[in-house]
Design a protein that fits this description.
four-stranded antiparallel beta sheet, 6 strands
């Protein structure tokens, strides 16, 4: 999975968690798997649940979400997303935990 911003910056989940100190911000953008992982399958289907963390929020313009999963027969697929809608939705987010003091 990956993202590509209109200015050409991109990030993928290939390679796992980036090796940075938590006190040092990485070079943006960053896309990492952040949970999920359940899955099942049968003769004709595969079901998987994954969660990803993208930092920072995308710019308030269109950007691409790109996926490919050769093992499951998913070819390179690209979908354009509305970054402005994501930024607007983020304005309604509330902290889950209070900030440390």
């Amino acid at each position: 999975m990956g993202v590509e911003f209109a200015d050409g910056r991109n990030a993928t989940n290939v390679g796992g968690w980036p090796p940075w100190e938590l006190t040092t911000p990485p070079d943006p953008p960053v896309l990492v798997e952040a949970g999920g992982g359940g899955g099942s399958g049968g003769d004709d289907r595969i079901v998987s649940s994954r969660e990803f963390w993208l930092w920072p929020l995308p710019p308030a313009e269109r950007f691409a979400l790109v996926i490919e999963w050769p093992f499951a027969g998913v070819p390179l697929t690209r979908a354009e997303l509305n970054g402005a809608a994501i930024v607007a939705a983020a304005e309604h987010a509330e902290p889950f935990w209070p900030k440390p003091t």
